[in-house]
Write a structure and sequence with these properties.
Helix content: 25-40%
Largest sheet: 5 strands, mixed
Number of strands: 7
Oligomer: single chain
Strand order of the largest sheet: 5-4-3-7-6
Order of helices and strands: EHHEEEEHEE
Number of helices: 3
Distance between the termini: 32 Å
Shape: elongated
Length: 157
Amino acid sequence: MSKVSYYTAEGLKKLREELNQLKDIERPKASQAIAEARDKGDLSENAEYDAAKEAQGMLEMKISKMEDTLANARVIDESQLDTSKVLALSIVKIKNQTNGMEMTYTLVAESEADLASGKISVNSPIGKGLLGKSVGDVAKIQVPNGIIKFDILEISR
């Protein structure tokens, strides 16, 4: 049984678009590459044919995995979420107690995480450490070089 994964409406739309791209554009390209390689003669010694078949197998595996993910995807209704605690889709402003640096992160599903845009996974060490905390709490988070303490300054949506 596959696990349920939660997405924002935007994240789910991106996933569907990527799946459609693979099915509608990449799949026909793979079939065409196999047909072209087959036309080049003896299949027993045709490395191009073997490579095209291998690429098609990998593509089909990726499509299958994405379809499975989509089948178990759920959209998070942001209006139903409590803003008094850090949950998925919370925008959290934290302050590092050691160096006084303030950061703002949005906690998202693992597949939507993008540190450059301030989105961290709820499954990351920092994400896990922040979940369930309230404004004023101190999150003690185990990272590879020790424990970092963060003050929770603000929680919003």
